[in-house]
Amino acid sequence: MKTQKHIVIVEDETDLLANYRAALEQHGYRVTGLNSRQQADTFFLQSLPDLAILDIGLGDEPDAGFDLCRNLRQQSDSLPILILTARDHEVDVVSGLRLGADDYLSKDISMPHLLARVAGLFRRSELRDNKQQQKQWQQGPLTVLTDNLQVQWHNQTVPLTVTEFWMVQSLARYPGQVKTRDQLMQDANIYVDEGTITSHVKRIRKKFMAIDPDFDCIDTVHGMGYRWQS
């Protein structure tokens, strides 16, 4: 029997929380609803779900969801995190992605679209669990472990999110080949604007440079996209 995926939703609007929970449970997920940062902090210290959905503003804390996102990413490099909020300003989107969110959605999204994005995040994260033997490939000092969605640079693990992993693999598989932002979206199975892809790439560069300050393998091709330089 297939184990139910466990989703935790942190949302302080009671009616919205009930709606999200009902829709997700109807599609076979096990759902825990939390309505405050304090509840979430306590819960996540005890155990992590298979996916976390976070609102940003909780109670009288306008940025509580950002703090939760940061803390969760520190606890796990691979936990899928989805921010679902009414705040859709570009600065908020960029902030959420930089803190480690894999996806960022506005609350005006339709329920079928939300369910599709949740399923997409699970499809990507499940790939590492369905492989029986470790597979890896190398490109210079880069090692890509495809069974557990990890990347190493000079034998040090780069703490990438699931989305970032697929983007690095997409680029590094074919050095010198330009990947457009649309192609990176398709390879990472996300549907965002071009600015969000740019934010992801910037964050990926920073993570590699934290290990190797001289890292410069991701080249921006202006007006086209990005390529991996050997």
TrEMBL record:
| Cellular component GO terms held in the UniProt record | cytosol; protein-DNA complex
Answer whether the UniProt record assigns the keyword Transmembrane to this protein.
Answer: no
Report keywords, A-Z.
DNA-binding, Phosphoprotein, Transcription, Transcription regulation, Two-component regulatory system
Q: Which CDD domains does this UniProt record tie to the protein?
A: trans_reg_C
Does this entry carry the keyword Aminoacyl-tRNA synthetase? no
Q: Which domain of life is it from?
A: Bacteria
Q: Where is the OmpR/PhoB-type domain?
A: 134-230
Q: Which of the residues bear the PTM 4-aspartylphosphate? A: 55
> What is this protein's record name?
DNA-binding response regulator
